[in-house]
Amino acid sequence: MSTQENGYRNKLNTVCDRQKWAFQKGECVPSGSKNQTVWTGQVYVNKTPFEGKGSSKGAAWEAAAKNALDHIKANNSGVVDD
């Protein structure tokens, strides 16, 4: 997995560390056919779940981390750097 694929997860981990928030990677489950599997992954920030979907486990967790960062950015001014 490339560094770019871990970008949102790394950023979320850094934000959570700085804010002293709990961060945990949750489940990632497949759905759909073998040829068109869609993964749904979760991450948790202070036990609040954020979900994302992607064509691989890594992509699903990245999407979940991006959703968490977007939520944090919208609700906590100045916490997430651009």
TrEMBL record:
Record-linked Pfam families: dsrm
Domain DRBM: 1-74
Keywords of the record: RNA-binding
UniProt-listed CDD domains: DSRM_SF
One of the record's GO molecular function terms: RNA binding
Protein name as catalogued: DRBM domain-containing protein
Source organism of this protein record: Agaricus bisporus var. burnettii
